[in-house]
Design goal:
There is one protein chain. About 55% of the residues lie in helices and about 10% in strands. It has helices spanning about 20-30, 40-45, 50-60, 65-85, 95-105; strands at about 5-10, 15, 90, 105-110. The strands form 2 sheets. It has a two-stranded parallel sheet. A two-stranded antiparallel ribbon has the order 2-3. α1 crosses α4 (about 65-85) and α3 (about 50-60) packs across α4. The two termini are about 30 Å apart.
Length: about 110
């Protein structure tokens, strides 16, 4: 008998975090007097935070080293975590899906990608 397991990435799958990611980028880049738009956010979707930081600062002629990139990456994550703690929205249908999977005895594991 084959065992079935479903691995779920929580960010954007179980919980709608998109607006919080966008807001955290706006706040981070505002400290550099850079306006970050929703259009840019959509274009950046799927890139690593460090790649986004390097690209946007470089585009605005701001030079930073790798240590500063790592620092800003952590700072953006702290901003995101603070925003998300304030209010979080689950994606419609997720709870029902998880209940159905549980009934069917399909194991689930939350992962972070």
């Amino acid at each position: 008998m084959t065992k079935k397991t479903l691995y779920i990435d929580m960010d954007g799958v179980i919980v709608d975090t998109s607006s919080y990611h966008y807001k955290s980028w706006v706040i981070l880049f505002k400290s550099f007097r850079i306006k970050y738009t929703k259009k840019e956010f959509k274009k950046d979707f799927g890139k690593t935070s460090r790649a986004i930081i390097k690209e946007h600062l470089s585009k605005h002629k701001i030079k930073i080293d790798e240590e500063k990139v790592r620092y800003l990456d952590r700072k953006k994550e702290r901003i995101f975590r603070k925003l998300i703690r304030e209010k979080i929205k689950k994606i419609r249908g997720v709870i029902e899906l998880m209940e159905e999977l549980k009934k069917r005895k399909i194991k689930m594991a939350r992962i972070k990608i």
